[in-house]
Amino acid sequence: MEIKTRAVAGTSESSDITIILEPSDSNEININLTSSAEKQFGRQIRKVINNTLMELGITRANVTAIDFGALDCVIKARVQTAAYRAAESKEYKW
């Protein structure tokens, strides 16, 4: 899957995360994370984002993640939603 445009998923509500996905000129996934719990859970949040993108076949993207205490399942769902929107895809492989 290729990221074609900027896309956003999620809210700023408690227990949620906002994911902003954008095309990247580099051949890697760049994650910019903002979270009040970054010291405790930053590595895990980045891992979930990275693994979800890799599962979707995305190897290059700029990701901005603003975490408000989201669980892993919520992070994965928001990343998937943003990815499908950014790829302008109508076929979902859940």
TrEMBL record:
One of its GO terms (molecular function) is lyase activity. It is found in: Cytoplasm. The keyword Cytoplasm applies. InterPro entries: CitD (IPR006495), Mal_deCO2ase/Cit_lyase_ACP (IPR023439). Keywords: Cytoplasm, Lyase, Phosphoprotein. GO terms for cellular component: cytoplasm. The modification O-(phosphoribosyl dephospho-coenzyme A)serine is found at S14. It comes from the Bacteria. It holds the Pfam family ACP. Belongs to the CitD family. Oligomer with a subunit composition of (alpha,beta,gamma)6. Covalent carrier of the coenzyme of citrate lyase. This is Citrate lyase acyl carrier protein. It comes from Clostridium tepidiprofundi DSM 19306. The gene is citD_1.
